[in-house]
Amino acid sequence: MRSLSANNPVLLVTLGQRPEAITVALDALLDKYTYDEIGILTTDPKNSGIRRAYHALHTVLADDYQQYKFTVDDYILCHPDGSPIIDLDTNYSAEAYFRGLLQVMKPIREQATPIHLLIAGGRKAMSVYAMLAATWLFGVNDRVLTVLTPQELMQSGFYHMPSKHAHSVQVVEMPMVISRELPITLAAKDIDEMIATQSDPARRFIESLSHARKRVANALAQEDGISNVELASQLGIVEKTVENHLNDIYKQLAAYFDIDHLSDAQKRQMLIDVMRGRV
């Protein structure tokens, strides 16, 4: 990947059996955006079922977009041993595909370069994992996109929509939860750390609590409707100490769950649910 402009987004596309969906969407996107790079997220282009789609897409990008200045780069997603993924047919290959997506997107995000992720041309499983990776990494300037086009117009080999049907092409921005990670914090994390943090956040939150805070959280979760005064009496501490512990606990909880928008009562209930194993 070459050095990227801080202004122009990178377009990443998931490649499956429908390369036509990618170019039809690209035609519409190029009316609105200037891309420095088109990155093709792909399984093994030599041995998997997307070989035809891979070569067709490269041919069309090379022949039909010569007036544009973007580069085209392949991101061949691999297993941990370095062998290219052929298909998402096992849990092992699916996990490797997801990890590969994170490895591609994270360095771009670290540079604060906007990412547009187009999930129109991939299989459903690929699209789901790509969406998940985006929720882990994407900021307010990043986009997840798909294309909506009448099925009868999406014929095999039909890489550009005739002008009379151009109005039928809708590139839709998918709703997405924005990641809490900033580029500067991403740079300090490796992929294994990110996966560990995101996996079972409730357990990791509880493990992060000090002994004193865990006592307060456990006592709160053991009895419905217990007040801070009652907690203080039960634990042999003053009410102000309970309040301080709870405020600190909520700050820790916010590192694992999106609770900043919640009221104090809702944060309290969220903590109870986490401690009771409901989350």
TrEMBL record:
| MF terms in GO | DNA binding
Q: Which residues form a coiled coil?
A: none
Q: Which domain of life is it from?
A: Bacteria
Gene3D superfamilies, alphabetized: Winged helix-like DNA-binding domain superfamily/Winged helix DNA-binding domain (1.10.10.10)
Question: Which residues are in the CRISPR system ring nuclease SSO2081-like domain?
Answer: 19-175
Which parts of the sequence belong to the HTH luxR-type domain? Answer: 224-254
Write down the Pfam families for this protein, in alphabetical order.
Cas_NE0113, GerE
Biological process, per Gene Ontology: regulation of DNA-templated transcription
The name under which this protein is listed is Uncharacterized protein
Q: Which organism is it from?
A: Phototrophicus methaneseepsis
